[in-house]
Amino acid sequence: MKKLKIILDRKPMNSNHVASKQDFNQVLNEFKKLKPPIWKNPWFYGPVGLASLTLLMSISIVNSKELINDNTSTKQSSALLPEDTKCFHPIKESLVQQFTTYSIDASVEQTINLPSGTSIFIPKGSLIPSSPEKKVEIKIREFNDKADAFIAGIPMDYQKNSAFESAGMIEIRGGETGEKIKISPSKPIEVSMVLRKDPSSFTFWKLEEDQKEWINYPASFNTSKNSISDKRNELNQLKKELVETTAKITSNEISSKKIIEPTRIENFLPIEGNQRFDLAFDENEFPELEKFIGMEFEVNSKKKYDKSFTKKIWSEVDLVKENDTYFASFSSKTEKFKIGVRPVLNGIKKEEAEINLSKSIAFCQNKKQELEIEKKKLIFEKLQQESKLKTLVDNPSETLLYNAMRQEENSAGKPNRFAASFQTVTFGIFNCDHPIEYPLAYKEEVGFSFYGNTIADVKSAYIFDNDQDLCFSFGSNTARDLDKFGCFEKNSNTLFVLDSNGSMGYVLDYTAKSIKNGFIKVTVINKKDENIEFIHNLINENAINS
Amino acid sequence: MSVNPLYHKSNVWLEQELTWIQKAQKDPACFAPLYKEYHEQIFRYIFQRMDDEDLAFDVTSQVFMKALNNINKYEYRGVPFASWLYRIAKSELYQAFRDKKAERVVNVESVHLFEIAEELEEDSNEINKKQMFACLSQLKENDMQLIELRFFEKRSFREMGEILDLTENNAKVKTFRALEKLKQLFIKK
Predict the structure, then answer these.
(1) B61 vs A27, A203, A216: nearest CB
(2) Distance separating alpha carbons of residues A360 and A353, to the nearest angstrom
(3) What tens digit of pLDDT does each residue of B127-164 get?
(4) Across the interface, do B61 and A26 touch by the CB < 8 Å criterion?
(5) Burial B119-152 (b: 16+ CB within 10 A, else e)
(6) What count of Cα atoms within 13 Å lies in the side-chain half-sphere of residue A387?
């Protein structure tokens, strides 16, 4: 890993010095140089457009007879989707990779999971059809390599001097029965696009189709599998913590229930309001009562009884013990009375026991309070964990990562997955790219000849640089003329050419040595081989069965 | 940790800014007040990350030129204009690194190292400062970026999110993780 260069305590720069370098006029002048030509200015189309329209109308009136019978004039009238726009120049219309169309209900949130692992999250109400019951069509094309982009005719140049090395590109369009549909600005579509390369040194772009220009577009990258693993670990850790917190709450409740305050009964202390009396008994018969010096007996009965028994004269009084419960029995000639009693402390022993009981009760109450506070903390912690977990699973931006995690889980054993996440309120082509400068042009112009044929009128030539995984384009419908043609000699290159008749040709392992006497001999592709698979294999250096 | 009030704007200010933007969308010359307002901030953001002053001024000009070129595409959707400029600045800066016109550097003040040490519950002394300095150089670019925005430039998590295109919460979580990594490096030393 390359270490970052860190500078400690650099001399701070004065604001006046920075201000002295401000030069808005220079920025304005540079900007003016970038301004589009006059015919790209909408004002241009006012007077000029009107004049052109008048001219066209005149011509159309004159030629109306012929045009009525011309079926092709209406063929392109439903030109709604990008494959028909001038921004794209496919090598042959019949070879263009078709969109995969997803018909969706815009009234509920939707996630489109593509076979590559890319996912597109469409929030509820993001797309607004003309009537609520109408379904919306989402058309998607993924470009998995330089051949895909080339066949589709996507301009892959950057600022005329660089070509894009792509880590992944996707085209997303939306429509409703042939009409374009817009995305609500407040509910952007969220895309988690799987990339085939580490995007660390890449930038994210969107194609401005009107200007035929790629512009920087905000996206966040998962630069390694670890970032997804981190997220998964975070989720698992959060789930684990939630289980632990729940267990702690249960344990806290059990502990709290176990804390039982000591009672006066347990501590042989009298209960206010209960009747007490002295009772003589045989100490030998009840040795356990020996410790209750100066003791009293307290009535221990929940039933109603005659409280005047202590005032009556009894001929016989006795203490008996039945099943650990003491009973005092009284008898006289006329009546008998029996009541449950318990021994209670009196005097100093009682005072000591009262103090101890107070201490024990205070201890229990403190302990309960501590547990209660701990429980509240745990409940708060649990709520936070639940909320965090909910955010991680429900939040749209986090959902992208969650989806990515699930995709990763589904593709266990597959190599590292890099991804770019972005939001959009417009449809179009999104690309994770790295611009690489064009090679120097050959000093002398080269010509092309097809094997066994006359010199071909080559319209455009393409160098597929297999080492840098990109395509340098020259000639018609490209940003560079054919006289700028060249390649990086040390790299493995495939040359592909198109002539003005639509014929295609190629040279495998192309280098400057392929030029003989100023001409490059090109192998013609048979008409039967003019299909996506063949061209795909050719560009990607696979076996050609021709 | 206190955040730099420079990066915070009142609603009145944001409304004024929006008026300037709308004017600039009609007439590029009206971009001047925005240029004047943000030139220093953007320059310092760039110069914080490179060592070549002249190049930093060039990249700053490039940022404003790009902003002017794309001003018609700017729509206020909750992200302040400054954050939009920072995003362009970030892109231009990394383009300069890719083109090898500049080397990525990190400028640190001693006081920042002490603050990070305190954040990691370590003593703010010279030994720890040196150790922290050594550990910082081992951080990966993504983590360094977060530490830089948060501790060296004193930005709020919200603003960090706007610049890095993350949610505020995500910026917070990622910064916390970057700090954790720094702490681990510090402990290993």
Answers:
(1) A27
(2) 10
(3) 888 888 889 888 888 899 999 999 888 888 888 888 88
(4) yes
(5) ebebeeeeebbebbeebbebbebbbbbbbbbbbb
(6) 7
Alpha helices in A72-164 (DSSP H): 72-75, 146-152
Helices (H), A72-172: 72-75, 146-152
Are residues A124 and A207 located together in one domain of the fold? yes
Inter-chain touch B108–A8, beta carbons under 8 Å: yes
Alpha-carbon distance of A378 to A372, in angstroms, equals: 10
End-to-end CA distance of chain B: 26
Nearest to A309 by CA among A344, A272, A273, A334: A334
Tell which B residues from 104 to 163 touch A, by Cβ distance under 8 Å. Answer: 104-110, 133, 136-142, 144
Domain of residue A303 covers 276-344
Q: B110-188: which CATH architecture?
A: Up-down Bundle (1.20)
Instruction: Determine the distance from the C-alpha atom of residue B67 to the mean position of all C-alpha atoms in its chain, rounded to a whole number.
Output: 17
Decide if A33 contacts B134 (C-beta within 8 A). Answer: no
* Mean pLDDT, rounded, of chain B: 85
| Number of residues written out for chain A | 546
β partners of residue A277 = A297
Characterize the bridge pairing of strands A447-450 and A519-524. Answer: parallel
User: A328 and A341 in contact (C-beta within 8 Å)?
Assistant: yes
Average pLDDT over residues A451-463: 72
Q: Can you read off the two tokens belonging to residue B43?
A: 């320059």
- For chain A, how many structural domains are there in total? 4
CA distance A16 to A27: 19
Question: Which residues in chain A are closer than 8 Å to B57, comparing Cβ atoms?
Answer: 21
Rounded distance between C-alpha atoms, residue A33 and residue A123, angstroms: 41
